[in-house]
Amino acid sequence: MLAVLALAASACGTAGAASTAAVTTAVRTESTTTAPQTTTTTAPPPTTAPPTTTIPNPYETLTAIARSSLTSLVAYDAPNGELVELPFQVPNPHQFGGPLTMMVTEGDRDDAWVKVQLPIRPNGTEAWIPTSDYRIRSTVAHAEVNLTTTSVKVFDNGKLLTESQVAIGAPNTPTPLGTFFIAAKRRNPAAQLHLGTWALVLSGYSETLETFSGGLPVIAIHGSNDPARELGRAISNGCVRVPNDVVQFLAEHMPLGAPVIITS
After folding, report:
1. What is the C-alpha to C-alpha distance for residues 110 and 80, in angstroms, rounded to an integer?
2. Cα–Cα distance, 209 to 211 (Å, whole number)
3. Most buried residue, 6, 157, 179, 260, by most Cβ within 10 Å?
4. What's the predicted TM-score (pTM) here?
């Protein structure tokens, strides 16, 4: 384009001055023409609430409470998996009273399946259950039993509520270690007041006795009718003995499914 414009100017010479002025004027007139301004409005970005994060409560434990339509425990090796063969039938309601209740070890309240600890042998056995057969609840209560210090502490949401001296299993029938849960509560009849006023049946069993009094050697936390002689000693068949006022407190503040952690 630059070469073509130069040749055209040389051919015209200087004789076209008026034409040049006209061109100049035209150029000046065009240069003063300004396109109208347009205004563009940009919509502000939509307001989005920041995401909320729920921090799980480290003291919360989910529990599975069987519905009345369930007559006995049925468990699976995985969600929609194979049936787990149980060593004995676990009825609903529990044989010592109250609905069949278990501690959830994996899963959430809205899940179709949760993993629970089973109240069977061997201690600590876990399996999956469909939540359609259960009501999923939660508790922030738990108890800790220390065999070395022969003591029990009861907590609510991490706050210590009470503590007490206890009696524990004798050397040949020791109290088993592990994390268990309260499977049933029973107010002891008059004929068994040597066990105190209450018995809180745990999900664990003696690991040295095959049977006890003609039945399974289930471990419990129960009262004592002679605390001055028994507490602080390793003298039981595996159960944890506490003063009657303490077992009463436990019965009132520890719901079914609440964890009981036994350490040495």
Report:
1. 16
2. 6
3. 260
4. 0.80
Residues 6+ apart with CB under 8 A from 165: 150, 151, 231, 232
3-state secondary structure 183-205: EEEEECCHHHHHHCCEEEEEEEE
CA distances, 180 to each of 124, 167, 219 (Å): 7, 18, 10
Strands 218-222, 240-241: pairing is: parallel
Q: Which two tokens stand for residue 239?
A: 């159960």
Among the listed residues 86, 103, 93, the one whose alpha carbon sits nearest the alpha carbon of residue 182: 103
d(CA 197, CA 213): 19
Closest CA relative to residue 182, chosen from 92, 76, 253, 78? 253
Let me know if 221 is exposed, middle or buried by CB neighbors in 10 A (0-12, 13-18, 19+).
Answer: buried
The structural domains of the chain, ordered by start, are 61-139 (2.30.30.40), 141-263 (2.40.440.10)
Cα separations (Å) of 18 from 6, 8, 25, 28, 29?
A: 19, 16, 10, 15, 16
Which pair of tokens denotes residue 170? Answer: 């004798």
* 8-state DSSP, 51: P
The alpha carbons of the chain give a radius of gyration, in whole angstroms, of 40
Two tokens, residue 178: 């592990």
Q: Which amino acid is at 140?
A: V
Tens digits of residue pLDDT in 150-205: 999 999 999 999 999 999 999 999 999 999 999 999 999 988 888 899 999 999 99
Q: How many CB atoms lie within 10 A of CB 32?
A: 6
What six digits make up the tokens of 129? 């259950």
